[in-house]
Amino acid sequence: MSRVGYVNGVYRPHGEAVVHIEDRGFQFADGVYEVWSVMDGRLADFDGHMARLHRCLTELGIEIPMSAAALGVVLKETVRRNRVRDGLVYLQVTRGTASRDHAFPVDVAPTVVVTAKRLDPAKGRRAAGNGVAAITRPDIRWGRCDIKTVGLLPNVLAKQAARESGAYECLLVDELGLITEGSSTNAWIVDEHGKLRTRDTQANILRGVTRAAVLKLIEAEGLELEERAFSVEEAKRARELFVTAASAFVMPLISLDGARIGDGTPGPVATRLREVYLEQARREAI
Ligand SMILES: Cc1ncc(COP(=O)(O)O)c(C=O)c1O
């Protein structure tokens, strides 16, 4: 029996049921999902799952794609077309398809995908009859900021907050009040004493390739540097604040949470580092 998937209003054979490569679910994990168990062809806990779906979509500012009743029809139709008596029906809703940018796109319809699969109820009964084993691991959800994962939803929300404040970037702050990195950049200051500082990569941050290149340029320029975290207050008092990334090169920040940095214009160190970075990157680009 061939399986069928629902994508944005159309039921298609499973292998042809596809979303766009720029879907934000694929690019940023910018979406939510729900799963209902199917019992004798009917959906269990329908209202509970629908209520959680609505709450999660609202929390993320994703448009509710259709009414609960209409979604119920699609879920049941997918179950019917896949001839599932006992199994699961999955619903994925993403913010939709848009040209890549962390911040929310405007005027984009959410993507809706529904799939259903059969399960053997006897297998579940056997497992429950015998009992099953468990193991433990540290709860790292999602604590591995050193991995350049597509699980970027927190970064998306931070960038959107920046956008809504008219800012370029949102710097992320840990529980000690220290800046970790930007939502898509590494963060740097030239402190009150003129010393460059950026958080060390033993910390839970992405090891920026631009950061590494800039570190070498700093050495070549004979500038003083310390790989040590700095607080929001230190950043506000700094002579200069800037971020680095492949998408930004070296970008001077002139204010933080409304506080002016230095004299409110790009500082000489960031300006020089941007210049030498661009020179070198252009020369060495393959
Ligand atoms: C969270 C985060 N930090 C830092 C960076 C900068 O890394 P790179 O210099 O390799 O572009 C990025 C780039 O995407 C990022 O997403």
Tag the structure with descriptive keywords.
single chain; 286 residues; alpha+beta; D-amino Acid Aminotransferase, Chain A, domain 1; 6-stranded antiparallel β-sheet; 8 helices; binds pyridoxal-5'-phosphate
Report what the structure shows.
This protein has 286 residues and is α+β, with helices and mostly antiparallel strands. The model has no long low-confidence stretch (mean pLDDT 97). Helix content is 32%, strand content 24%. The strands form 4 sheets. A 6-stranded antiparallel β-sheet has the order 2-1-6-5-3-4. A 5-stranded mixed β-sheet has the order 11-10-9-12-13, covered by helices on one side. It is built from 8 helices and 15 strands. The chain folds into 2 domains: 4-130, Aminotransferase class 4, branched-chain amino acid transferase, N-terminal domain (D-amino Acid Aminotransferase, Chain A, domain 1); 153-284, Alpha-Beta Barrel (D-amino Acid Aminotransferase, Chain A, domain 2), CATH 3.20.10.10. The radius of gyration is 24 Å and the shape is elongated. Bound molecules: pyridoxal-5'-phosphate (PLP).
